[in-house]
Records
---
Amino acid sequence: TLTHLNSASEVHMVDVGGKEATHRTAIASGSVHFSNAETYSLIKNAQLKKGDVLSVARVAGIMAAKNCPLIIPLCHPISITSVTVDLELIPGNNSASAELVEGVPTNNGSVAVQATVKCYGPTGVEMEALTAVSGACLTIIDMIKAVDREAVIGPSRVVLKIGGRSGD
């Protein structure tokens, strides 16, 4: 059942007013894969002109989570109690054969992004966690585009949901 459609099949925001508030947590992950090995070195050695990529991406992810209902039309504005964005710079493996993500080999290095969002409320925070990951990944792309125009944002997904009716 699509909860965002009413009986006339019109889009509407779901009424969560009658739902019990519970502690809720969502964790999402994603990644940015570099198309060349130089990008990894430039980030690691803080040599990019735009600044500290990982710190700026972390703040962008937090800001994205907080602004989720402004970006995704049917998301409820909720009282987020915590947002954590973890980023890990992963070196390339210099392998001749590499898995491809959207045509970009994954052996040139990457940044793994994980966002954890918590709230106490009547609806979950999965979209806020995914928005945090997306905001961080987009910021990384923005900050490296001068040196890596072919970097790719890897798959993003919710990896854990706790609380509410369908949470673990």
---
Amino acid sequence: MHIQKLKLRYFRNYKDLGIEFGEGYNIIYGDNAQGKTNIIEAIFLCASGRSHRTSRDLELVNTGSIGYYVKLDMFKNDADSSIEMIFEKNERKKIKINEIPAIKIGSLMGHLNAVIFSPEDLFIIKEGPSERRRFLDITLSQLRPSYFHDLQQYSKILLQRNMLLKEMVNRKELYDTLEIWNNHLIKTGSRIIKIRNEFIQRMDMKASMRHKKLSNEAEKLEVRYVPSFNVKNSYELNDIEEDYRKTVESAIKKEIYKCTTLFGPHRDDYDIILNGMSTKIYGSQGQQRTAVLSMKLAEIDIMKEDTGDCPVLLLDDVLSELDNNRQEYLFENIGKIQTFITCTDKSFFRKPDANAKLFNIVNGMVIN
């Protein structure tokens, strides 16, 4: 799988851009605030249906314009394919796959798999659980469209259940209705928890191996799932449902008092441990960056295993953050993956023997 062309209209600082990529390394360089990251953002938008920088499509629209258009042409499974994203203010975003309108955003998942590594990815370690869940959800949604569907359903169930809990402060007769929403919450939430646990176990194993090599066997990296309630038995679906139901039933009075759902996937977390200690609290900036790099390489490994194909790799302004040894390890281990690299100076790309295509970006234009 590789991306052939990208077309942008009124997207960020691009009014009209058409660009053809190489199958190997694509080096997108130029001064700050010229639009390099916007190209990465457009590619990631076509993979996940969302920007990696904002949840608001309005922020992606060129100043003074009413919407944006993104088209990505790719070669996958021995055939040409395309993805189009069309957004206009006050309307829902439209998606086309091979020129056919997609009814739901879930139809996009898995069509283009992409792994992104940017400075903001340190938030996975530095920030709260929501950032770590976001990383999980974006990756798993690409790999399993059914997971994305469950996430959407769970959000709707959570919203309805929280509204009901607020009403129950003065209307205790709604207990029967709450039981219906409890069942929906437990069934859908348990499926999410099961898949997350399986993924984190694989991430733990693969990221640990990657980190061991990156640190010259000096450090041990672990990734541990921390669900919002105690899963006492196993992570088989029936056992998760049983423990989840017991937790929900014991928490109902407190939830009515607080008018919110206290347990479930929306409160999950996972710990990133280095040599037995929290990377967030005790890890240096360099150790945190190496831990995230290990997790991103593990993400690539998992995507290869699950899809039988390589994802595209998006490296947004991270080469200057990696020393020579880590850069060398990165490029040695990504193999023949189509890679997009943004940097302020093309000299940051220290792989002179590589098959690379260069793009100099100046004020939203490609300068040859």
